[in-house]
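Quick entry, no commentary yet.
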Amino acid sequence: MSGQRKSLSEFDAIVLGSYKDGALTDNASKEIPENIQKKIQEQLRCSGLKGKLGEVRMFYGLGENDENIPKKIAVVGLGINKDFKQSHVSEALEITRKAVAIGTRSLRELDVKHVGVDVMLHEHGAAEGATLGLYRFDSLKSVKNQKATPTISPIGSTSTNPDGNLCWDTGLIYAQAQNHARKLAETPANHMTPTIFAETVKSFLHDLSNIEIFIHDKEWAVQKNMGSFLSVARGSDEPLKFLEIRYNGGEKGQKPLAFVGKGITFDSGGISIKPSAKMAEMKGDMGGAAAVSSAIYGIAKLGLPINVVVSVPLCENMPSGHATKPGDVVKAMNGKSIEVDNTDAEGRLILADALYYTSSIYKPHSLIDVATLTGAMVVSLGEIYSGVFTNSTKLWEQLLEAGKVANDPFWRMPLDDKYSEDIKKSTVADLVNVGQKGVGGSCVAAIFLKEFVSGLTDDTDVSEKENNSLRLFDVDDADVDKKIRYAHLDIAGSMITYRDSGYNVKGMTRRPTRSLIEFARLIAKNPDFC
């Protein structure tokens, strides 16, 4: 897909945006001849188009003998024409994403090869909408879809992003990153083992500047005393991997931003085996790993002037004669012993060692883990929001802003030490990996993970505040300057969508890839952001 400007004659088809009054966007009006605009408006009135967002009409041969006008034109409604101020940029982005995705998908059904895209209200959103909307996963089918994915280019001039703002090229990068993550998560587990995952990520990162990639094996994990991680991998014949990626875009010695992603490439539940219904979806239990690995792709492609480290523990959770049993006690890298009451609460076990390793070795200014962690999150928020548990109000506000820009929304949940009472009741170990059955599962899981982040403030540093009618415990952000700001993102609900419209393609979503990239961009653009 190309962001290079082309003349209209080079396209087989074009996508245009139209307001409720029938007018085309300012960008399209500059590029489309006035006589063609009048024909489009006349046809729109005849076709009964109301101008609602997402309504689409197809027109053929409007240029008659004019070879400069593509024979196929998709016109998509944008709603009411209004001035989108800077404070409403997220709305302009989302309207454009939806409209362009609907238009390009409609044209793909006509088997076109080259599509020109009206950037409508925001060129970043236009590139995202087209790239995300045209995604499909059919690499394992013996008979491929005969309608090939068309190439896309913008109609009209686009900015070159001289000041770090969002533009057509950034939209391509954000969407391509999410599509990388989609492919990782959608691929069946026998085709996406821990080894294949690590090698696949290495392959799409290897040409990027300032990237270092390390793929560690079982012996390395043993040397690091990662007993919690090792305990989950024991039941599978597939060897575990620990993927470590460093992006050195900032000054040497500058504290990095750190991402940790849960990488269970298939989750059967282990000895505490899951019900068979929807177990096939557990190929996507490495959604956090896919998101963070693809986010660093986007960050490196943008060339952001920051340092980033990504840690991904990868393994399968399988039942066998070697598998960890309920009641077994394992020891994590930080020395804490854990009673494994439920082997299906395995994500927090592999993340425990990854969090401690990342926080103690790299001492990042901000540490964000992403995980398809709890069924309780699915019940709480469904697929619309990802849950965020954090010790920093400033970090929460920044994630919230990034999510708004990407239309990949977050909802804050309580990271409250009172939930730790449930995980400290073991009679044989320091911690137990689950709390009371069916009670506050997501909150208990989050507070369990917090036990393994080195460098957080202790209880004397917190103050009570009110947020979303929940009592939360937040560190004073001035105090966090010398310590780690931490956030746990539970994406168990947002990992998959059963919708198939616009830029949402049915299947594994691989959220919040674009939000993580946007968060990193905001850090790079605003030195005081972190």
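second:
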Amino acid sequence: MASKPFKVLIVGASVAGLSLALMLEKNGIEFVVLEAYPDIAPQIGASIGLLPNGLRILDQLGCYDAVMEKAEFPVTETVFRDSRGRPFASIKDFGSVLTERHGYAMLFLDRQMLIQILYSAIQGKSKVFTSERVVTIRNKDSSVTVTTKSGKTYTGDIIIGADGIHSTVRKQMWLEANRVDPKWIDPSEENSLAATYACIFGISEGIPGIKKGSVNSVLNEHFSYIVPSGPGDKTYWFLVKNLGKTVYGTDIPRFTKEEEENLAQQHWNDYVTPTLRFSDLYKHKTNSVYTSLPEYVYKRWYFQRIMTIGDASHKFEPVTGQGGNSAIETAAALTNHLVSGLGECTSASLTTKEVESIFQKVQVQREARTQSILKDAHARQRFECLETWSLRVFARYVFPYIPKQMLWDSLYNIFCPAVSLRMLPQPKRQRSEPYFDELFRTPSSRGWIGYSVYVLYVIVATRAYRLLFVAGIKNGTWNLLHDAMRKDIFTMDIPVRRSYTQNERIDRMLQSLVTVFFAAFTSSSDEQVLQLAYFLSAILPLVAIFTVEGFRNRNKWSLLSVPSIWGLLYQLHGIGFIAPIYFLASAFSSRHAVYFSPTSRRLSTSDAAVILPAVIVGYIVPTLLSFFPIREAYSRQLIIAIWQPAPIFVVILTHIFSRLSKIAACLQNSEKCIPQNINGDIRHLDLIYQVTGIISACFHIALVLGCVVSGNNISLVQMLLPRSSFAPVANLADGLFIFFQNDYLMAAAAIFLWCWLSIWDLYRVGLSNVSWKRGLVALVAGFALIGPGATFATVWYWREHIMTGENFARRI
């Protein structure tokens, strides 16, 4: 609560104005609302759409239940229609997913209804004055004074203009600024307000064919319709039309009722649905208004003790429904900083400099977000008006097939950064996505560190290429390999098998790979066999995790969605060379905060449940068979050949097992397949990381202990770290020993960097409090104690749980 006398003059009993008044009242801050019209909530024919970012604040203010009661029908689905009213795309689960993710659905009601709800919630209604049109404003050293048309004057500490796009407060603020500091306001701003579209918006009653809980967007060339259902038998509608050019400032037209009716006649027979025309809406209207749709975010929202909020500072196209919601957000941001400023104030009241500092913080916090909303709304309106041939092609051939995950990701970027009231408790609405102000910190971009990571991965991949392939040429390994294949023998007694698939190109490739691994699998050197077993156990978690990431929904449109291709590449060219490239692609895909959101994290439960069995059957079993001391050489080579595409087998088996499990589930519940738990995948993923991590850790610990107890017989350093990669080798086995050393070394470097980046990413997006320094220490310890593969699995286990939002769930 405020501890010092302080009064806020609010001009305009708008959504922004009354929201701010209620917020101030909740914090014990004095206010006066001056409304130019004689009524607080006149019916002007306007509806308003409320979205999670606005509803969350209204919930804090105790208005949410009243809003829900008035709205009656939350939006359940959105439908996109063509010029004949035929649906070509829809999101049937829009309302349920929005509520599950963000805690609130989308609501439509009369603007009048929302204003009445806000007014009714204000206890001090005597502080709200009607028929008080502001005429002049004067800043003073420690106060600001307003004179109204009735001749009355009101004095307060600050004045807030919530009086719309044609704001009197903004005009007076500019006059004050020009009088005191002419450079404060950019003179070009007077004609910067732009309008490309105009709109007839209205409310109709008794309209059949508009499903309750639906929003219909009807796309046409250079005009469009938005038709949401309303409470009772109301239907809201917007006919948006391109003005033909973008006009500015005083050139923005204002329309008469006659012009409205003329435009309505031009569109009289437009289809809204196949059975509903625009004429049906217009003939049954109770209210309508024809107006231009200006859009702009002003450069200066304040001067000294004067500030504008809502449409007076940022105005958008109505197509995304963010006008009223953003007005509520800005009011909340102002309240937060004002309460904080009053709490920190050591004098009797805030000085003008302190007031300006508060206003500046509000604009800094809100300006970039409002600019982004403006651009999004303009782009959306251009799309719905099919302004170009490319947009028409996109709407017809691309838009209906865009994965829904992309839509949910875009909504994440709209809703999650939203402001709320810091001093009021967050309502306990069940949701899976945390808002940014509920996290440990506000998500930030990687900045220059992200680009540095890209460069480091390129360096690691380049170094790996040199150590694996250039060194193999220099030290003679590849010549020895070619000699073995040319002579068709490994030794005097063991010939090279030439046929596996009857396909010459594939057989030639398999001969090369089998020759490489046969020499290692059958080596008489215990050190070399141990090295290979350790190496293959270390990459086991990678095989599993690459598969997991390939089946994750958020990666479907990225390079990570093809784990079989990555598996083929690292079997052919070495994990040490391919892993840095894979992690580079992964680093690029995960650069945005939405990548780490709890809902984008999820896998299908049926996929997650079968990955471990697929890894066991497709990778672990073939790997173990390759080590079996089978005497018959041709059979041993065949087993090693079968092992080569093991990572691909894992992916194929995952698809097969998943399909079979879905069929079995549906057969067991023949009437309806059971819906999946939103985090039903997590226990299966836990098991994947635990099993593969433990196997890898056991090999690492056993090898370390074996080297310790063996004395000088086996050296861990000599086994894993090459002394000279370019020195000539005596035989193929020695060359391959060095190859696997470098392969392991480069893979370990790539894993270390990726684990560190993952730890830091979760810190920078606010999901974790583990800093990069603590993460670095933990990784060094993990690599030493349990090895790179097990450390990778451990980090992924921890990362998975962090991304489920468990910490967030405990805080709300």
